């Protein structure tokens, strides 16, 4: 571990202090504050060349990593976008501010004491904006689970709208690799060469779907290249601190919406020429709620005492002993799962063990061909035990995985007597976290649940109608449709 920690390289402990002194929020007319840019990709796992993944072409992101620091262990508080984004813009655990349910019908206001970080930047003289790559007049995603007026939350959609010389805190949202996936005809990925996780069947549909995901990741890379080139063309690159990350893990079966590694593990690259050594790596545990605190600190803005996030750059910043993540209702699918991740172990607690993992979810059923593939293969007895487990009719109350030995989280060690001490430790971490941060009311109102179900039922019928299929189609016929679509 000492060797891993030593890779978190900083130019000097005094460099950060000197930078913050010159970028503080006093005498703003006499100082030059750094611009801060969040580049956020939708549903991005760590399938990038700089993270050691083969058969994916990501030269722009790889170059960004070579110019900054690559963080190996950044995890999100949720494996769905709206909850994750709500946390990042506040620096708070979503269960503490009623933002844990995905896209509620009746959103509530943030507690009076909680202020989105955009306001802190604005008070410090920053122009705050949230936009997209291709249309600079369009706001990026602001699907936060609290009431807000986007035009009050942000000054605009692009930093070009700021006053001359005014620093900016900008977010640029990249909609990929969120499904539906897109082809990359310039750099196609050969499905026969990709590495398939062992919890998926090695099938032509699985391989094609995974290859399409990687090609869509390459679309992310192209947009990152556009952003970096624009900064350079406008003379902003040297005075802009860049954070590149995803809002959650990748969009596949057993990943998005779930508490395994792939659901919450996302890249983080920070380019900070005045402080971070080029080509550095860091293995510290980082939560995406820490991005808000770090952004404020980077700008020399005082971090509010209520914030759950904490800065992570600098030799004297505190290190996390664990990461906490959560799952609640996602679309129409009611659930409650909590997880804590330490350096070695991942502990998961299922509050509805009587329910299957793969409850009906309209979005997943329509968009995930491998889900239908696995359901058909299960009926035919063609799945391995590891693959079939995710389609079980129930689940254990507790799951414990040794990440160092079992990165795919397929060998549940919760009943292993040799790890009883570790299990008790993880239980204790979870129990303490629940008391302190899980302040939500359960169950959610039936009105909200019924509303979500009605909306998603209508959406599923509409989606299926657009591709000429009945919503009541059998799994076998739906799989045949996917076969024709993906495998010419």
The helicity comes to 25-40%
What sequence of helices (H) and strands (E) makes up the elements?
A: HHEHEHHEHEHEHEEHEEEHHHEHHH
Number of helices in the DSSP assignment: 15
Spatial shape: globular
Strand order of the largest sheet: 3-4-1-5-6-2-7
Question: How many runs of DSSP E, i.e. beta strands?
Answer: 11
Poorly predicted runs are 1-6, 12-31
Radius of gyration computed on alpha carbons: 22 Å
Strand content: 5-15%
Helix-and-strand structural type: alpha/beta
Overall pLDDT: 93
Could you explain the architecture of this structure?
- The chain has 488 residues and is of the alpha/beta class.
- 33% of the residues lie in helices and 15% in strands.
- The chain contains 15 helices and 11 strands.
- It has a 7-stranded mixed sheet. Strands 8-9-10-11 form a 4-stranded antiparallel sheet, covered by helices on one side.
- Helix 11 crosses helix 15 (475-486).
- The radius of gyration is 22 Å and the shape is globular.
Keywords:
15% strand, 11 strands, 15 helices, globular, seven-stranded mixed sheet, disordered N terminus, four-stranded antiparallel sheet, 488 residues
């Amino acid at each position: 571990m000492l060797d891993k920690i030593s890779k978190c390289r900083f130019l000097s402990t005094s460099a950060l202090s000197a930078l913050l002194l010159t970028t503080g929020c006093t005498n703003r007319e006499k100082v030059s504050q750094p611009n801060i840019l969040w580049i956020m990709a939708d549903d991005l796992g760590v399938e990038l060349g700089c993270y050691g993944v083969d058969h994916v072409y990501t030269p722009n992101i790889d170059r960004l990593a070579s110019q900054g620091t690559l963080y190996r262990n950044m995890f999100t508080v949720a494996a769905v976008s709206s909850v994750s984004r709500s946390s990042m813009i506040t620096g708070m655990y979503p269960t503490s501010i009623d933002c844990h349910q995905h896209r509620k019908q009746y959103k509530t206001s943030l507690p009076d004491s909680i202020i989105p970080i955009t306001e802190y930047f604005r008070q410090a003289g920053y122009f705050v904006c949230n936009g997209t790559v291709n249309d600079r007049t369009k706001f990026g995603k602001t699907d936060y689970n609290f009431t807000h007026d986007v035009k009050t939350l942000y000054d605009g959609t692009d930093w070009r709208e700021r006053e001359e010389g005014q620093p900016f805190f900008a977010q640029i949202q990249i909609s990929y690799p969120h499904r539906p996936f897109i082809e990359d005809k310039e750099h196609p990925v050969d499905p026969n060469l990709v590495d398939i996780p062992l919890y998926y069947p090695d099938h032509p549909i699985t391989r094609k779907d995974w290859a399409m995901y990687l090609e869509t990741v390459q679309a992310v890379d192209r947009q990152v290249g556009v952003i970096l080139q624009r900064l350079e063309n406008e003379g902003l690159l040297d005075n802009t601190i860049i954070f590149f990350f995803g809002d959650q893990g990748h969009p596949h079966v057993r990943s998005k919406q779930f508490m395994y590694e792939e659901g919450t593990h996302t890249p983080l690259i920070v380019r900070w020429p005045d402080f971070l050594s080029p080509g550095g790596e860091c293995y510290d545990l980082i939560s995406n709620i820490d991005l808000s605190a770090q952004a404020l600190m980077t700008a020399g803005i005082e971090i509010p005492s209520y914030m759950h996030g904490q800065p992570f750059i600098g030799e004297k910043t505190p290190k996390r002993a664990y990461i906490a993540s959560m799952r609640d209702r996602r679309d129409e699918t009611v659930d409650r799962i909590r997880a804590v991740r330490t350096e070695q172990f991942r502990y998961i607690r299922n509050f509805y063990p009587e329910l299957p993992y793969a409850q009906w979810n309209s979005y997943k059923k329509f968009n995930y061909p491998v889900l239908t593939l696995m359901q058909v293969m299960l009926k035919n007895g063609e799945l391995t035990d590891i693959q079939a487990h995710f389609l079980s009719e129930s689940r254990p109350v507790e799951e414990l995985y040794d990440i160092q030995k079992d990165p795919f989280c397929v060998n549940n060690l919760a009943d292993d007597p040799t790890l009883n001490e570790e299990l008790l430790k993880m239980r204790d971490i979870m129990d303490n976290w629940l008391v302190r941060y899980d302040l939500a009311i359960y169950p959610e109102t039936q009105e909200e649940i019924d509303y979500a179900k009605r909306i998603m039922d209508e959406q599923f019928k509409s989606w299926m109608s657009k591709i000429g299929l009945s919503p009541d189609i059998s799994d076998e016929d739906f799989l045949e449709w996917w076969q024709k679509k993906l495998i010419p």
